[in-house]
Design a protein that fits this description.
The structure is a homodimer.
Chain A lengths: L12 E7 L5 E7 L1 H10 L3 E4 L4 E4 L7 E9 L6 E8 L14 E2 L2
Parallel strand pairs in A: 1-6
Antiparallel strand pairs in A: 1-2, 3-4, 5-6
Chain lengths: ~100, ~100
């Protein structure tokens, strides 16, 4: 475990996913210690699903996987930023490239 | 309240702050219903401080404020992305422009 605040293995860290090339924000997911370790090891992004309460590899079913290009933590070590290469067409289950497609203002 | 999931006024929504011009990710903070309303009304970013347990206007003391350029919610309406114009020099209390200055990989 590289310097992240996972004092408990079930603790969740919000993780921002950014397209490494276009710098577009694609989604925000949650990592626990195990999904972080798997992401580091495999070079593709794993999250913790809060609704299904299990580890999931992004794109395992949809095919839209996230290849890790760089990982940053924030000053407090309680948030992550991962720059990715999107393998596939889009990230969001709605068919949008990014999950942040709803413009409020 | 514009279409966000704040079923309780104390519920917290992770909020990604992105430089509207450079697209750099500057920080991740948390909003509750009240800080979201104040942000919408005033056009500058307010967060909920989890450690101090109160609303705070980003830059109130440091002077490094965040002017709102655009706000997006994600597909599940449980995360926010705010594109900002940084008023001041940097966002992080360490003196770095972005809080995500620690490269893990």
């Amino acid at each position: 475990m590289k310097k992240m605040n996972f004092p408990r293995s079930d603790l969740l860290i919000p993780t921002v996913i950014q397209d490494a090339k276009t710098l577009e924000i694609l989604m925000l997911g949650y990592m626990n210690r195990r999904s972080f370790n798997k992401t580091l090891k495999e070079g593709q992004v794993y999250f913790w699903s809060r609704s299904r309460r299990k580890i999931w590899k992004k794109g395992e079913i949809s095919g839209n996987k996230l290849g890790v290009k760089a990982i940053f933590s924030d000053c407090d070590k309680d948030a992550l930023l991962i720059k990715v290469k999107l393998i596939g067409k889009n990230v969001c289950h709605t068919g949008n490239k990014s999950c942040f497609y709803r413009k409020i203002l």
